[in-house]
Amino acid sequence: MAKPNLSPKINLNKHNFESLLQERVNNEISKYVINSNEIDKSMHYALSNPGKRVRPLLTYLVGDVLNLDFNKLDGTASAIEIIHTYSLVHDDLPCMDNDDLRRGKPTLHVKYSESTAVLAGDAMASLAIDIILQDENLNSDLKVELLQFLMKTIGPEGMILGQIQDISFESTSANEEEIIKMNELKTGALVEFSMLAPVIIAGERTDQWKKIAKRVGITFQLIDDLLDIQQSEENLGKAAKKDKKKNKKNYPICFGADKTRDKIKEYQDDVKTILSDMNLTDHPISIYINKLFDRQR
Predict the structure, then answer these.
(1) 105: β partners
(2) 202-211, pLDDT tens digit by residue?
(3) pLDDT per position as a tens digit, 260-288
């Protein structure tokens, strides 16, 4: 089946941006998983699970602010979602969080096998790197810079460090600063990369984008942790109230829901102020970030 032609730019507005960008992400990802063998089938199962595509949407929305040709973002946006999905597949493994449900469907190791899930996660990480390497819309210098940033984001100084801290805190104590740092690493770092990758591609680095990206990344995990103690499994599409059962040291468990909401509001107010200073209050990126922050309600 022929793939639809994707224009370099989409006319985004507050009513259509989510559906248009989600469709674009899904079309792009479908190019890379052919579903021709066992590992492809398992990757396809994980990647076709109906996630919200939050991270690549942030990439496109920042790119829209910077007036970037979306063809320059497609490969990176796809790689980000594939990396995120790999991290979920490994998080769900019996040796990690041991979850049976993800996005309302059986987790990959339940659908296939534990070994298949391990290898599918490995394959997705490799695929994401290769997508950026093979991206004909980026020059070599940009590819090197993006991949260096991505490897730091997801490697032993980033996401993986945050994940091991999350596990180790199950049997030790953690203070507020350590919990915030863990959130920044295990979840926030990839969100930051998602928002800063188009800034790098556009050559428009500013402290404002860095501040927004960091606050959005940390807050995303704070809200997830809050939802875990408040929402049902049906609403979440995954196991609920699992963090307390596992003796996790997340922010609402350690400091309460009210203080968590206060922290979220603090970050939300910071982001709103910066976006207002950048004259982006009415841009879809502000609408989307506010929607992400309002998930707690």
Answers:
(1) 102
(2) 998 889 999 9
(3) 999 999 999 999 999 999 999 999 999 99
- What is the model's pTM? 0.91
**Structural tokens at position 248:** 């996790």
3-state per-residue secondary structure call for the chain: CCCCCCCCCCCCCCCCHHHHHHHHHHHHHHCCCCCCCHHHHHHHHHHHCCCCCHHHHHHHHHHHHCCCCCHHHHHHHHHHHHHHHHHHHHHCCCCCCCCCEECCEECHHHHCCHHHHHHHHHHHHHHHHHHHHCCCCCCHHHHHHHHHHHHHHHCCCCHHHHHHHHHHCCCCCCCHHHHHHHHHHHHHHHHHHHHHHHHHHHCCCCHHHHHHHHHHHHHHHHHHHHHHHHCCHHHHCCCCCHHHHCCCCCHHHHHCHHHHHHHHHHHHHHHHHHHHHCCCCCCHHHHHHHHHHHHHC
**What sign for the dihedral angle of Cα 90, 94, 98, 99?**
positive
> Of the candidates 221, 201, 192, which has an alpha carbon nearest to the alpha carbon of residue 142?
201
Half-sphere exposure in the Cβ direction for 34 (13 Å, CA): 3
Q: Which residues contact 207 (CB under 8 A, 6 or more apart)?
A: none
Between helix 71-91 and helix 140-154 the angle, nearest 10°, is 20
Closest CA to 56 of 31, 85, 33, 34: 85
Beta bridge mates, 102: 105
Phi/psi for 77 (5° steps) reads: -60, -45
